[in-house]
Amino acid sequence: MVEAEALVVREYDSESDRGGVEEVERACEVGSSGAGKMCLFTDLLGDPLCRIRNSPAYLMLVAETATGGGETNGTEIAGLVRGCVKYVVSGSTRARDPIYTKVGYILGLRVSPSHRRKGVGKKLVDRMEEWFRQMGAEYSYMATEQDNEASVRLFTGRCGYAKFRTPSVLVHPVFGHALEPSRSAVIVRLELREAELLYRWHFAAVEFFPADIDAVLSNALSLGTFLAIPAGSRWEGVEAFLASPPVSWAVLSVWNCMDAFRLEVRGAPRLMRAAAGATRLVDRAAPWLKIPSIPNLFAPFGLYFLYGLSGAGPDAPRLARALCRHAHNMARRGGCGVVATEISASEPVRAGVPHWARLSADDLWCIKRLADGYSDGPLGDWTKAPAGHSIFIDPREF
């Protein structure tokens, strides 16, 4: 690795840095598909803070370096990183009371291609961890695709992180036709109070469940929480549900990422783009055929993110599928290209989540202990804790 050039790592300035940040974002791929030929690019719609500004505490850092010489001296943005701090569930007591731990989350690390392999990424991570410690965070964690070797090497090899959890991002295209509602499920839209009570009851011991779930559910980007129960069941309010839940049920909430950022697949072969366009043409011309169509992912598109997806009982996967169909139709009306969720490998409802493997990916979460002590005796060192059946994905930082 080449030694890092003279860098200044400082807080992002929205007035002077926006142009340089957008240049770095445009030059960096979010992910790749197959031999690195197709790349996923992000358009932040002019707001570099969009992925963190809804968090309780957040910070964006930029790495600035000098350019030119003599009378042409100037600076440019060589890299950037975002971070947020919040309280999340890290475990539970024997009485199943949640243990909340303050954590920092690193996301959106970007280094301009012309400044890679010069230590820029590590300097940004180190400085972000300093801020996490100042904010009282006990752990820092990050997420990347499992096949992103450069990111994994940086965090596990040079920054001291340990591989921790491996959830999957499951993506399904939004078809040109609406999906028929399930006849075997009743879908109830929960009020905010009902959704919060149900979530705090069900996710009390689930890792990364945010302490401020009320703020998540009431955010303008959260489009509602929906509960699926078997057909023939009666909804008599959340209190009755919690006192005597049905044998099987499923729940999810919908987050509108489309109003925060857009995505675009670049580098796709012309034949692939033509074939995708043909499926859309057929779907529009004959929607009664209900032929699966591939949305135009080769131009900027939006997505709805399904969070809090979980449930219980033998029919929970089937009920989750009914909820996903409902969310698909919401996304269709909203003009989205895809719906997505992130879920653990052992989540009970995972088998019912429709998705296209070609569009989906396996994530890797890495974690690092920042504090010298431990927050709660029953928890111990969270980095060594075994994985549970579920994991909560905060939509604010998806």
Q: What is the gist of this entry?
A:
This protein has 398 residues and is an alpha+beta fold.
Structural write-up:
The chain has 398 residues and is α+β, with helices and mostly antiparallel strands. Helices cover 23% and strands 32% of the residues. It contains eight helices and 16 strands. The protein has helices spanning 18-27, 120-134, 149-158, 192-202, 213-217, 238-243, 270-285, 316-334; strands at 7-11, 31-33, 38-43, 57-67, 74-92, 98-111, 139-145, 162-165, 168-173, 185-190, 222-230, 249-256, 262-266, 303-312, 338-343, 361-369. Strands 1, 4, 5, 6, 7, 8, 9, 10, 11, 12, 14, 15 and 16 form a 13-stranded mixed β-sheet that branches. Residues 32-36 have low confidence and may be disordered.
